[in-house]
Amino acid sequence: MKYALITGATAGFGKACAELFARNNWNLILTGRREERLNTLKAKIEKECNIEVITLCFDVRNQNDVMNAIGSLPSKITSSIELLINNAGLAVGKGPIDQGNTEDWERMIDTNVKGLLYVSKEIIPFLKSNSKGHIINIASIAGKEVYPGGNVYCASKHAVDALSQAMRIDLVSHNIKVTNIAPGAAETEFSLVRFKGNKNTADSVYEGYSPLLANDIAETAYFVASRPVHVNINDIVIMPTAQATPTILHKSE
Ligand code: NDP
Ligand code: 8X3
Questions:
Q1: Which of 158, 253, 214, 201 is nearest to 16 (CA)?
Q2: Does a structural domain hold residue 68?
Q3: Ligand 1 contact, 246 CB (< 6 A)
């Protein structure tokens, strides 16, 4: 009975990972802030797949809530966690650094960096006590390259990239795999969140080419999670075919 804990499972990559891992017989612990979406997803998956889904509703930015939610899991479940997908994250705003909004900066740093650390801190002891496990961190092309207006989001994803490397170093002696996945432009709710609900601006990000889809990232995560015991994929950069760099996109007329 192995379990995967996936943060940010109410939308986008996290939801697609939940559905794909469930179809491949993983039991799931799904987290996010939108409880209704978690409940709907749990009901759908449990109807379609013969696995167990546990939902935990919390904000990854609140360390007490992270500790209480994960601490509420029975030990027979926590001792069966073999995979953590640190996926919850967001960009808020895009523009010159001197015009940035400090609340947006804090949301990104608190969610993408501190939230990932808080969840990892709770889960790593379970993996260590089993002397096995896998952490997949969803970083970004923004963690490899910096682009105009990306400043703090790029900094937060460079931090995720660094933490993936650091986790791999610190956990190698415990037989824990760590994978960094760095996607380019993918059509999810990401741009709607980044542009604060402005659907026209969000939609325009994905016009004129075929962006990645959430399932492309789920398939990538499933591929890395299903390698043999002796194989770890350290780092994957995955882009739409039409995107060479964050700013070089081949769009049709
Ligand atoms: P979505 O907006 O579709 O999904 C984001 C998920 O993160 C939601 O489930 C949301 O759940 C969760 N989340 C956000 N903030 C918090 C929080 N404070 N506490 C708990 N959960 C939170 O975006 P994506 O699926 O695209 O993004 C997933 C990850 O992939 C992010 O880390 C993003 O930075 C990264 N990424 C995205 C790319 C893209 O182009 N789409 C490319 C590269 C990386 P809820 O709101 O219910 O809490
Ligand atoms: C999301 C991809 O290029 O908008 O991480 O930063 S990008």
A1: 214
A2: yes
A3: no
Threshold 0.85, pTM exceeds: yes
Amino acid (one-letter) located at 237: V
Task: Domain of residue 82: give its range.
Answer: 3-238
Please state the atom number of ligand 1 nearest to the C-alpha of residue 160: 32
Q: Is residue 147 part of a domain?
A: yes
Residue 245 lies in a domain: no
Out of 31, 33, 209, give the residue to mutate to test ligand 1, the one with the largest number of ligand atoms within 8 Å of its CB: 33
With respect to residue 80, please indicate whether it lies within any of the assigned structural domains. Answer: yes
State pLDDT tens for residues 10-47: 999 999 999 999 999 999 999 999 999 999 999 999 99
Give yes or no for a contact between 216 and 13, defined as CB atoms under 8 angstroms apart: no
Q: Identify the CATH number of the domain in which residue 36 sits.
A: 3.40.50.720
- Ligand 2 in reach of 246 Cβ (< 6 A): yes
The pair of three-digit structure tokens given for residue 184, joined into one six-digit string: 């380019």
